[in-house]
């Protein structure tokens, strides 16, 4: 390794939090990483990291070098992107991160179509619902619900992600027409739950005021697709996104209820990427995905008859 490579290695160690994690990611022995950082310290003549058996801590000099490493990485990445944009045909590896359900439904389709059109691009698709460090984990593009909170990512809107409330005909026959918030909150419901996250409260507007209803969570599950399946079974209702709906409403397995409610969107789906000057392979992949999702009205909304007149469809929020 040369000096600049070792400097970038320091940045990687700090971002991942340990020599061991860097070694695993690079498929190297931990001792190799440790020796390279020690060599960097010798070259600079200062200690950069205080090491214990359980943790690493930057020294003051280490903090300064970390800033230099970040600047170096930005410069190298920008140089690479500028060069990439001179290629008429996309090439190389495209690393994509996506939430699980959207990835299975749409990003997978886009990846197949993209590689049919651009055979020289190798695609790696990672489906995860955790928050990804796009830059630190070296992803080219990610697809997420909601605009990223970090200012170091560029975001591009893909589509709205509207909510609806569904129940099976058997559930409605058993409980009668559901027309009030009180009924909605009292009836058994299936909700999404994961460590640190419980989606049993949803916002709506009434008389220009934001309000909230809370579902009676009789069944909690950490797989979004299970919500529609549970509602189809007939024992519970569910609040789902239009993206989660296939042909269940057209086939009569599920019925939208409380359609007069002014529901707020669950969150817009965005493409996020690290650099404003994105390489051609990133830009072309977004275009491919949009061709599958649809432009003005996403395809998943078109599968729901009359959805344009439900839940205050023109709500800008």
From TrEMBL:
HTH lysR-type domain mapped to chain residues: 1-59
Organism: Shewanella fidelis
CDD domains: PBP2_CrgA_like (cd08422)
Listed Gene3D superfamilies: 3.40.190.290, Winged helix-like DNA-binding domain superfamily/Winged helix DNA-binding domain
InterPro entries, A to Z: LysR-type_TF_proteobact-type, LysR_HTH_N, LysR_subst-bd, WH-like_DNA-bd_sf, WH_DNA-bd_sf
Pfam families: HTH_1 (PF00126), LysR_substrate (PF03466)
SUPFAM superfamilies: Periplasmic binding protein-like II, Winged helix' DNA-binding domain
An annotated GO BP: DNA-templated transcription
A molecular-function term among this protein's GO annotations: sequence-specific DNA binding
Key words, A-Z: DNA-binding, Transcription, Transcription regulation
Taxonomic superkingdom: Bacteria
Lineage, highest ranks first: Bacteria, Pseudomonadati, Pseudomonadota, Gammaproteobacteria, Alteromonadales
The family this protein is said to belong to: Belongs to the LysR transcriptional regulatory family.
Presence of the UniProt keyword Protein biosynthesis in the record: no
Protein name from the UniProt record: LysR family transcriptional regulator
Keyword Transcription regulation part of the UniProt annotation: yes
């Amino acid at each position: 390794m040369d000096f600049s490579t070792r400097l970038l290695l320091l940045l990687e160690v700090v971002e991942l939090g340990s020599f061991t994690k860097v070694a695993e990611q690079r498929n190297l022995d931990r001792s190799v990483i440790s020796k390279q950082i020690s060599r960097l310290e010798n070259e600079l003549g200062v200690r950069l990291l205080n090491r214990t058996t359980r943790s690493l801590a930057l020294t003051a000099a280490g903090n300064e070098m970390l800033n230099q490493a970040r600047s170096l990485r930005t410069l190298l990445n920008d140089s690479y992107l500028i060069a990439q944009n001179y290629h008429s045909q996309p090439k190389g590896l495209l690393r994509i991160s996506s939430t699980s359900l959207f990835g299975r439904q749409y990003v997978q389709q886009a990846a197949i179509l993209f590689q049919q059109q651009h055979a020289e691009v190798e695609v790696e698709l990672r489906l995860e619902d955790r928050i990804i460090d796009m830059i630190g984990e070296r992803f080219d593009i990610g697809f997420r619900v909601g605009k990223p909170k970090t200012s170091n990512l560029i975001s591009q809107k893909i589509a709205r992600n509207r909510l609806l409330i569904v129940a099976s005909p058997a559930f409605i026959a058993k409980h009668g027409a559901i027309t009030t918030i009180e009924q909605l909150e009292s009836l058994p419901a299936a909700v999404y739950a994961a460590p640190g996250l419980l989606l049993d409260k949803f916002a709506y507007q009434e008389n220009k005021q934001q309000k909230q209803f809370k579902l009676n969570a009789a069944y909690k599950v950490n797989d979004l697709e299970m919500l529609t399946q549970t509602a189809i079974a007939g024992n519970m209702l569910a609040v789902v996104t239009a993206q989660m709906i296939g042909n269940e409403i057209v086939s009569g397995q599920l019925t939208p209820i409380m359609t007069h409610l002014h529901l707020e969107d669950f969150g817009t789906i965005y493409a996020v990427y690290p650099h404003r000057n994105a390489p051609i392979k990133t830009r072309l992949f977004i275009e491919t995905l949009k061709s599958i999702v649809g432009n003005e009205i996403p395809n998943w909304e078109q599968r729901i008859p009359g959805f344009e007149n439900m839940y205050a469809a023109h709500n800008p929020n």
